[in-house]
Amino acid sequence: MDLARTEVSGSPKGSASRKGSPSRKGSASRKGRSRGSAARLGLMAVPVAFFAVFFAYPVAAIVARGLKVGGAWQFGRIAEVVGQSDVRHVLWFTTWQALASTALTLLIALPGAYVFVRFEFRGKQVLRAVVTVPFVLPTVVVGTAFLALLGRGGLLDEMWGVRLDTTVWAILLAHVFFNYAVVVRTVGGLWSQLDPRQEEAARMLGASRWTAWRTVTLPALGPAVAAASLMVFLFTFTSFGVVQILGGPAYSTLEVEIYRQTAQLLDLSTAAVLTIVQFAAVGLILAVHAWTVRRRESALKLVDASAVARRPRGAGQWALLGGVMLTIAVLILLPLGVLIERSLSGPDGYGFTYYRELTSAEGGAFLVPPIEAVWNSLQYALAATAIALVIGGLAAAALTRRAGRLVRGFDALLMLPLGVSAVTVGFGFLITLDKPPLDLRSTWILVPLAQALVGVPFVVRTMLPVLRAVDGRLREAAAVLGASPLRAWREVDLPMVRRALLIAAGFAFAVSLGEFGATVFIARPDNPTLPVAVARLLGRAGELNYGQAMALSTILMVVCAVSLLLLERLRTDRTTGEF
Amino acid sequence: MNSVSTTKKVTVTAVAVSIGLVALSACGSSSDSGDKADSKSVTLVSHDSFNVSKDVLKAFEKSSGYKVNVLKDGDAGAAVNKAILSKDNPQGDVFFGVDNTLLSRALDNGLFQSYEAKGSEKVGSEFRVDGDKHRVTPVDSGDICVNYDKKYFADKKLAPPKSFADLTKPAYKDLLVTENASTSSPGLGFMLGSAAQYGDDGWQGYWKKLKANGVKVVDGWEQAYNEEFSGSAGGKKAKGDRPLVVSYASSPPVEVLYAKPQPKQAPTGVATGTCFRQVEYAGLLSNAKNEKGGKALLDFLIGAEFQKDMPLNMFVNPVREKTELPELFVKHGVKVDDPETMDPKKIADNRDQWVKSWTSLVLK
Questions:
Q1: Is A40 exposed, middle or buried (0-12, 13-18, 19+ CB in 10 A)?
Q2: Predicted local confidence at residue A153, as pLDDT
Q3: B227 touches chain A (CB under 8 A)
Q4: Mean pLDDT of all residues in B203-217
């Protein structure tokens, strides 16, 4: 590597000078620059087209349907709807619960991030994967697990007579459960590469442990913490399933209200206004996020992650490790355990009755045995992953080199699907993708397309930092040494991004597997996905249906856990994506 | 620059892949829409609860010559709304599953076209609406009623409630769980039942009393029945401790059918004086691509075979007169003689306003 670097710095314009006489040098590099931006536009074309057709168009169409009466826009509706006291109440609740959830998640997960970064202990990889499982689990499953824990007759109730369902506490705790991994991974990713010697140096110079941390580490971590907070805020601001199941009918977020207005009341104009409000809020969050991401990329002294983790020393560190383990056990393992327990406790004691039932079509919830949902899910998720990798990979490649406002706007655009109501997208698909040449409504590709919308942001976020870290001069050096562009890409770029690509793929896969909101609107009845099957089984009375729902949830959980575990094995110090 | 041509190559590859993807999906769509346009197949759009025995459907396919595609489209309310939104280019030919609480919305939006199904005269007259226009055909009826946990009331030596009025008595304090009337169809049905019982002005007073008597409201039927209710299999496991729940008159037979081994007696019972009758309709969609097939499908839905098959698949009552009920249904189910009902027009006029008042009265 050093060799390559010296050679490149020896002739920085290597490729240009190779092209001809020194007098043409300047014009060649200008040409190169313009060709560079042309290439970037080329790279962006496909993702932009994808988002235009499968996101912007459907969402705009459903909003227009609500706000356009007889060809005239009714913008007056916006003020009218926002002026309603119920709507303002919903807005207020949405905001403050998201703020509270974010604060609580940071409070609980930051020590976790520290422990995962600085300590070496047995089973760390497995645990890292396990804490990420909730993030990709569908909310129907999580809601059920949490209700079993916090609700009437739940564990908490039995032990101390405490019930938290239909309180805001249940919502907040479930949000921590979901987003713990976001903080651990985002903050941990950077933290693991901060040089601990800087803090040690400060201490040697007489600073107290706290002062050293506050003045050295915290400022360095700041942007990562800010980015993680904004992601958690985004996810909790648009929370749907958790609020609906655990909050009870008295609590409603914007997302829940959009669903209610669209799917239940068919009040499209109110839904359209709420969608616009949410869109504006999410746009703002993403703008701030993009800003902190840029700040985060400011130069930091980074080290090899493996060098900083060591076995905990002293009572304080062991206590910290123990505390974090206890938190994880109670907050994450316990709800997951409840699901497993229920899936196994059959009518006559523990057994695999419900799992066996999954292979029979007798139950009648579907036209096919529920177990087929597993294969459907895997196939859909594979297709969605492929689409997300192509779109997200191209987008990340386009965003690699820092550039102007246009590209930054594009960056934010890619994140928007995470913050737009799934019901809006689903209904938008329904009314827009129904005519040739885009008559996709009854094709299988619709589900992977919707799932890929959610997967792309993860691919971009994972790939981007790695792609940016690839030193362009290496590529040029290879070229100087006579490699063809393809060969240079294969020998230089590919080995560096392969792991990131795999991790991105894994995340897109897991997220697609768990995607529920949009899928439920477009999944075909003969091809239910796992989360859709769970929801349908839960929607029917009878012990077998309930048990099968638990068994399917457990299978989904295990599949997610296994794919995440495989990802853990791929992680190295190089891959510092946000997730 | 070399890196430029590299990225260019990547672009070209990616564009090719994307074109491939679109082409792939286009292939899928063309074969599918080919299916639809094909007069040999007919598509039924319904909600998640739609179900039919395989052999019954096969028999229809054989006798009519149509292949039936079933598209289950979410819960009942969402399915109706989706059908309305896509009515210009519908997803299928026949929609089944609009009930009396949403009927006016479907009719006012021009979801259906006229067709008088063969065999309509065999359908009980009390189910027929829409006069001579015949835009909808009644297919089934079911009753939304309070269910009770037999064991709880036996253990407490307390008689289970029978009527709306009973539910406000001190003996049943903190025992009932119901669903949010704005998001759940049994929740809405129970509210409408109370409105039918106590009148346009009286029902709010009734709910004030219910609230004072500790009624619990959850968002959906799933939670109410599977989590909070102590009598259902799911609720037992979840240690639900509300022995009264708003569900269906047909829920007890379901508890028997899906238990292994099947108990001799249903673990739950029905408070027959708390029922609201729900009727479900089907209709030929406006702009249906296969009108002829759709008509045959509607005939089939009120035909003897389908009507007889329905109870154990969807747990609803047939509307065709003299349809024999399955033994399990008769043995564990309850016949509700005098359920509350309400004219769809009246429901349409008042629903939104009532749900609003109900929400501020009960939830806030």
A1: buried
A2: 60
A3: yes
A4: 95
